[in-house]
Amino acid sequence: MSFLFNNVTIIGVGLIGGSLARVLKAKGLAGRVVGSGRSRESLEQAIRLGVIDAIGQGPAYGVEDADLVVLASPVGTFVRIMQDIAPHLKQGAIVTDVGSVKGGLVRSIGQVLPVGCHYVPGHPIAGREKSGVAEAAENLFNGKRCILTPGPSTDAKAFELVRRVWIAAGALVTEMDADLHDKVFGAVSHLPHVAAFAMMTAVAELNTGTEEYLKFSGGGFRDFTRIAASSPEMWRDICLMNRENLVQKIDRYLASLNQLKRDIAAGDGQRLEKHLQHASNIRRGLE
Predict the structure, then answer these.
(1) Could you tell me which residues are beta bridge partners of residue 180?
(2) CATH code, domain with 18
(3) Helix, coil or strand: residue 69
(4) Distance of alpha carbon 158 from its chain centroid, rounded?
(5) Which helix (H) or strand (E) holds 173?
(6) CB under 8 Å to 273, separation ≥6 — which residues?
(7) Mean pLDDT over residues 153-158, rounded?
(8) Checking phi first, is residue 143 left (phi over 0); if not, alpha (psi -120 to 50) or beta?
(9) Looking at residue 270, which CATH number applies to its domain?
(10) What's the pTM value of the predicted model, to 2 decimals?
(11) Is the Cα torsion angle 281, 282, 285, 287 positive or negative in sign?
C-alpha cells in the first residue's frame, strides 16, 4: 500500500492533533502515526483509543524516522520543541503546525529549521471549547477552513503534500500571508475569546451570597460565553504571541462598546437602534 507519508509524528495529541491523527489513519495517508507530548497519561489514552500507533520517547519526541512532524501543542511551546527536535530530523522531513498565531512564530521556527528540512505553517479553524484526545474526531475538519501561510522559501512539493492532507481531512484550504493572518484572526478569533473570558469573569464577580446571577443564565449568555471554557494555557499563549494586534482589536471593541454605553446612558433610543440594526444586518449576512 502506498502512503502519502510512511511515518508521521504528532507532538501534542489533543483535540486537533488527535483528530488529524484519526484522519491520517482513516484515509490511509500514513503508514505509522507516533504521538508525543508532555502527558504520558494522555498518550496512553490515545493508544487505547486507536488514535496513534506508538508513543515517541526521549527529547527527540520520536521524530527520527518521521517524514512529517506536526506541532499541535500550545503555540508557546513550538520554538522550544523545534530547538529540541532539529538535530534529530532526517533530511527531507516536513514540519507543519496547527497554531493560531503565525507571523513572528513562522520566522522564529524558520531560523532553527535544519537545512534540507521544510516548514509549512498551518492553522485549521476547527477548535472547540472542549479539549483532549477523547474529543478527537475524524470529521472535525469537514467543511472548515484551514489557512496555510507559506513564505518565499517554502518548498513547493512540501506545501502540496501538506495541502493534500488537509483536503483529505475535508478542510477548505486557503493561502494567506502570515502577518495578515495574525491581523485577521486577532479580530475574528482572538478578540471574541478575550471578550468571552471577560464577560464570564464580569458576571461571576457580581455573585454574592444573596444574588446568584449565573444560575439564572439562559441561552444567550451561554452561547456568548461558550468559548470561555477553552484551554487557558492555549489562550494565554495565543494572546501574548499576538498581543500587538490583539490590543489594537480590544481598543476597537471598547470603542464600539462605549458607543452603545453612551446611547443607553443618554436614553437615545433612535441612535441606539441604529447601531444595533447595523450590527444585526452584518451578523445576518454571515449566515
Answers:
(1) none
(2) 3.40.50.720
(3) strand
(4) 21
(5) strand 172-175
(6) none
(7) 96
(8) left
(9) 1.10.3660.10
(10) 0.91
(11) negative
